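Re: the 181-residue chain
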Amino acid sequence: MSGFADYQPDVDRQSADATITVRPAELADLEACAGLIVSRTGGSVEARTHRLMADLREPERYAAVACAGDEVIGYGGVIHHEVSPGDPPDMAPTGYYLVGLIVAPDWRRHGIGELLTADRMRWTAERADSIYYFANLANGATLDLHHSLGFTEVTRDFTFPGDPLQPGTGVLLRADLTTGQ
């Protein structure tokens, strides 16, 4: 298990039969979000729900959900990372980072990841001129999505606190959020 969806670039995007809404996550959404996260990463839904609750209280973090009716079918977050004086020289730069994009398996290839990412970029654009994202080099689906939204490669030689990527397997990307772009 790779931890991310199989990439099928030649499969056409499906149209969603339901109206999809993207909005800021609310307390009532967190258990569903935790379930999506745990389905990909493992762990406890209860523990993940508690971590998401803390995120909702943090003003430098944002969580967005995609819903089909009342059902949460996607999740993505934004965090703010600060470089500290004791960090290694290859530490990823200070800034806002997209994290945790997950779409329920039955809803993949419907453009939901793009909707969630655009919403998180909009939120960040109200606070900063750029945004970062890092991913596994083997995750072609997310890399293509982010490239289509203006992300370009910064480096493959970086560290990030808590990042599970093994050295040499990740890429750090950045997008400008200025209005002229």
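The chain has a mean pLDDT of 89.
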